[in-house]
Amino acid sequence: MAIGAINEIKKAEDKADEIIKESTVEAKKIIEKAKLQAQSNYDDALEKAKVKADKIVHEAICLGNEEAEIILEEGKKEVQEILNVSEEKKNNALKLIVERIVKIHGNS
């Protein structure tokens, strides 16, 4: 009877060891799967963040180009206004300059 009980205990211990081994293997699989899933989630989040950042940068560049275009157009208009100063205004400016030079230096 005692030998039978010892054998039963031995079987129970062996079964417990087997369950522990299987559990350990299963736990390692679960951990590996979790690591892979975490890496996949991280990669997805990183890709989404990169796409969003690229979109924001692209929109900022487009907006900057639009604003620059407006400023350039205004500058071109100002240049044309300066280039289109009438001969009369040029002559008047020349006369004023000559008069001031003459006043400063007298009639020498």
Labels describing this entry:
rod-shaped, 108 residues
Describe the 3D structure:
The protein is mainly alpha-helical and 108 residues long. The chain has one domain. It contains two helices and no strands. The longest helix is centred in the middle third of the chain and has 82 residues, at 2-83. Keywords: Coiled coil. It comes from Clostridium saccharobutylicum DSM 13864. This is ATP synthase archaeal, H subunit. Residues 65-92 form a coiled coil.
- Summed up, the helix count is 2
Query: Assembly type of the shown chains?
Result: single chain
Helix-strand makeup class: mainly alpha
Q: How many E strands? A: 0
Q: Strand-residue fraction?
A: under 5%
Kindly, what is the distance between the CA atoms of the first and last residues, rounded to a whole number of angstroms?
Answer: 145 Å
Biggest beta sheet summary: none
User: What is the N-to-C order of secondary-structure elements (H for helix, E for strand)?
Assistant: HH
Q: Provide the domain count.
A: 1
Radius of gyration: 44 Å
Average pLDDT, all residues: 91
Protein name: ATP synthase archaeal, H subunit
Keywords: Coiled coil
